[in-house]
Amino acid sequence: MFGKPQWFRRRKYGGWGLAPATWQGWVYIGIFLIPFAIFQVFPIWSDSLRIGVTIGWITLLIIDVLHIMMSLNNDERETKIEAFAERNAAWAMVGTIVVGILYQIIKSGFSKTIEIDWFLVATLFVGVVVKAISNIVYDRKSL
Amino acid sequence: MRTRIKELRARLGLTQEQLAQQVNVRRETIVFLEQGKYNPSLQLSHDVAMALETTIEELFIFD
User: Domain range spanning residue B47?
Assistant: First the structure.
């Protein structure tokens, strides 16, 4: 694709995704963002074209970033550190979601109406499914 | 666990960066390996031993 893995490193301290490691990484970000920003600023295109280009642009960016992330050459110590960090982040998110759902259940009890955000419940359920699938796959895989 | 990586690397005149490139890891990983602060996989142990022209048994010292 367009970006090269050696231009980036995994984002460690500011969320997920990639961070530029070299000047080429910054140029890549500029090339992706500046034409898109210019396109959005000038109101000479129709809304349908604007929406189409935005969807296409973001799709292209996501595919390229995923390709770069999969090609990044992480050494085994980095991979271990990343796995521990991701696990801790997952546990923090699960804990927060559970607390949020419990709060909504208690609130529902007081107001006698169901005020549960089902997206939170669905998120927890998806997590359970992904964990189960991961265990099935990795139990059978030679690691 | 202690290692003889630093000693054997110096004997071959390799820098940490050069060894890291040979075994396909970051220089920081070599630093932690030399300080005995990282337990490498068998594959990495083998790769480092090969790069330093020695055996795994010679490379790591278990007290």
Answer: 2-61
